[in-house]
Write a structure and sequence with these properties.
- Strands 6-13-7-8-12-9-11-10-14-15 form a 10-stranded mixed sheet, sandwiched between helices. It has a 7-stranded mixed sheet with strand order 27-28-24-23-22-29-30, with helices on both faces.
- It is an alpha/beta fold and 785 residues long.
- It binds zinc ion (3 copies).
- One zinc ion (ZN) binds at residues 503, 507, 527, 530, 728-729, 761.
- One zinc ion is lined by residues 503, 507, 527, 530, 728-729, 761.
Length: 785
Amino acid sequence: MKGETIRRRLDLRGQVQGVGFRPFVYRLATELGLGGYVGNTSNGAVIEIQGPATTVARFETALFERLPPLARVSELSSKDLDPVDDPVGGPVFDIHTSTADPFRRPEVTPDAATCPDCLAELFDPRDCRHHYPFINCTNCGPRYSIIRSVPYDRPATTMAVFKMCPLCDTEYSDPRDRRFHAQPNACPRCGPQLRLCRPDRSEIDGEPVPAAAAMLQEGRILAIKGIGGYHLACRADREDVVTGLRQRKLRDGKPLAVMVRDIRTARQFARLTPRDEEALRSPAAPIVLAAKPGNSGLAPSIAPGCSTVGLMIPYAPVHHLLFAHLAGLGPHGAAPLVMTSANLAGHPLTYRDDEAFDSLSDVADAFLIHDREIFRPIDDSVTFTFRGDNIPIRRARGYAPRPLPVTWPRAAGDTAAPGRGILAVGAELKSTVCLLNNREAILSEHLGDLSRPETYRHFVQAIDRLQELFGFRPAAVACDLHPQYLSTRYAAQLDLPVVAIQHHHAHIASVLAEHGDPGPVIGLSCDGTGYGTDGAVWGCELLLCSPGDFKRLGHLEYFPLVGGDAAAIETWRPAAALLRSAFGTAWRSEAADVLGKVPPHDLDVFEWQASAGVNAPPTSSLGRVFDAVAFLLGLCDRNRHEAEAAMALEAAAAGPEVNPYPCDVTPGDEGFKLSLAEALVGIQADVRAGQPIDRLAARFHETVAHLLATAAVMACESHGLNTVAVSGGCFANRRLLERVVALLESERLSVLYNRRVPAGDGGVALGQAAAAAWQMENPNRSAGS
Ligand SMILES: [Zn+2]
Ligand SMILES: [Zn+2]
Ligand SMILES: [Zn+2]
């Protein structure tokens, strides 16, 4: 008994275009003998499915259970239609390939790691793509990095120059094939090729991959062109080799990412949680920051002063091939490799071949390159696991440009949800930009530090290319309040209304946008630096926030940021400023021991500047307090790269610690004053008494967590609220995040934090866009009302 025939229409929204969704539906329907069709719509896909009711039900179950790996369905609606007559010969299922709708969002998906099916073919000697380094299908391969324009079709990608051979073309045109409309489809006969070259660009004879693997095994440094740009690669298990790389380049001490052959090897080098492993294996294949065991076997200079190591596993076929060859060369399997973005300090990622040879010929012994052009350079993403979420610290390859929904429940009387054509240009360090339209935000990949002219050019190009790709025309531009940020100046010269959003408000708005929470909430926004409405350098802020508005309820007591930019580099400066605030006029004698390594003349100048207020703006920066404590504990004298001291302090903190130093939150006319003065005095005394550094570091973290939680609890009580949102670069510190969240939850408050975008300045553009949209849509609502 087959049951009655029904016809059902399913409307799906989400990431269902360009991910092999239609062929998948076709195969499923055909397998079950059902009729109907599948097609794309402006925001997703539509399926009409016809057959016996029980079989249609089986189809619907299997649709979700067997969804292709890159597909995501965010919304589904269905309705029953009148069945139509089956054609003579039985039911037929079609794929509608029409792209008639001019308003549809282009099918742009993130780049995805090589899938298991392609991997099996890569190592199958009978397969026509055996050992072919550019194998891919609709479930994997380059996407965003190779798309020039829309509609997303082969001529619009950097694959246009490769004409498909008959075999590839057959696969590409067959709806039943895994490579149906896989735009980068290629094989050894028709697709891109690898070459191994000397620094003078002459080609090295022989098979490129085995030769490159042999050079790596010997301890040489290679520049390798991958999906989004060039890496510098070398053995990660030999200190002499890694030191050699640092001497030639990368002197700034930044931790280096390590690629290992597979998950099993990854377990040797880090203590991985199941969620870490899931992230490593995901199509996004990010760098995952994981705890480093005592003796990992990795060269010590990979991540000096860090308790974590950034690991990833191969995500491009060329990586898999290199490791397969390395495995044959090493006595204990394939050596781990440093795989670090090949960019000169402060420059954007190197991705053009000419540029690579020009800038890396003194660094790399050889270049493993290919002739598939990278159109959109994109760095590896960096993530960490917190409470089951894999949270980006740097959001780039594998994540961008996946849209983020920005919707708030409508309050009575509200006319619309936010979101009409806003371009947000972000902050300055860790720049990203955001396009907000139709309740969806496209957050760009990490673009780098805009204070460098090269990165600024890259930023301008990225905005142009992103807007062109999405056919986006902004009605307004949102930027930071800082008048000197290059992003702010860029916004000012566009011929558009400008909405300036205060930096710390933008951080909290990014959390509200992610969670769809319309507020008001209490916000804790903590970072190194952000321009305040009073002209001071803000950085530890207690705010009352709605998405579009905020009120400052309190902040860390101001201390002078003496020496301008030098104050963010030389860690003795904030230490001296805080000791000066704690001890008053006697500060130099009281703190003589800890300040012993600072030249007395520098301290004289410091005192003069601090007392005269010369080049010494007031700051409430929590980032600088971390620097100060790292200095007092003898962990870091200079930030060679951003947050080096704070990372060293986090790494030093060991053991559970629930005993904070005294710290206070005092209400006053100008709001809550958060003070760490007494804590600093306590730390200085404990250092003098020879207390173990790991315990002092842990106690300091606990103190900051208590201070922040106490302030938030008091603010919640005085405003009758029970939700706290936390954001800002300081919450990339897992220990601090964990303790603040735990302390607030123990007070029965609900806590929101960034899960899909970075808590640091890489998430600010989303907050700016959301805040500006909210202001435009709700002109009469503010956080205070
Ligand atoms: Zn594949
Ligand atoms: Zn081919
Ligand atoms: Zn910030």
